[in-house]
Specification:
Elements (H helix, E strand, L loop, with lengths): L2 E3 L8 H4 L5 E6 L4 E6 L3 E5 L2 E8 L4 H8 L2 E6 L5 H9 L7 H4 L4 E4 L2 E4 L4 E12 L8 H4 L10 E12 L1
Antiparallel strand pairs: 1-10, 2-3, 2-6, 4-5, 5-10, 6-9, 7-8, 9-10
Length: 166
């Protein structure tokens, strides 16, 4: 059902695709995985590699999967899947089977979890990770985004290794 494309043929507006339409970040394996909705991240070039970068708080269940695994996927969906994305952003996979509740069908590309309903799947291999830290936030509006004792997100940079569309 998915067709692999060359990343050079990928045409999208990341500000719309990520910031407005959202995506699912998914990591794990065929035995156990978790996903979460994200509206933060980006696509670009770093260290002469095509990369995607995402941000996950340590309290999120997906965090432990992303920390442990070498690969993760970014899945983008048509608008009719908005309720599934909303559910995956508000429920924890620790407490329920949110993939089933959202009506999503797990699929695996080279062992990396993604979803049949996605219209675009980007498979990434982690190449860099770093915890964001309060002293590095240079703008007051960033600092006020976090509570006094709330952990900052961890940034993951993934080399884009495969791209699939329908």
């Amino acid at each position: 059902m998915f067709k692999e494309i060359n990343i050079k043929d990928l045409s999208l507006n990341p500000f719309t695709k990520i910031g407005k339409e959202w995506m699912l970040i998914t990591a794990g394996n065929e035995e156990k995985f978790n996903t979460m909705t994200a509206s933060w991240g980006g696509l670009g070039v770093l260290w002469n590699k095509n990369v995607a970068f995402t941000f996950i708080r340590p309290c999120r269940y997906t965090f432990e999967f992303t920390q442990r695994e070498e690969y993760f996927s970014l899945c983008f969906f048509p608008e009719e899947q908005r309720s599934a994305l909303t559910l995956c952003g508000t429920k924890s996979g620790r407490e329920c089977n949110k993939v089933k509740e959202a009506g999503l069908t797990p699929s695996f590309i080279d062992g990396v979890p993604c979803f049949e309903e996605a219209s675009l799947v980007i498979i990434c291999r982690k190449v860099y990770t770093q915890e964001m830290q309060a002293p590095c936030a240079l703008s007051d509006d960033i600092k006020t985004h976090y509570g006094e004792n709330e952990p900052y997100h961890t940034m993951y940079v993934g080399e884009i290794v495969k791209v699939f569309t329908k």
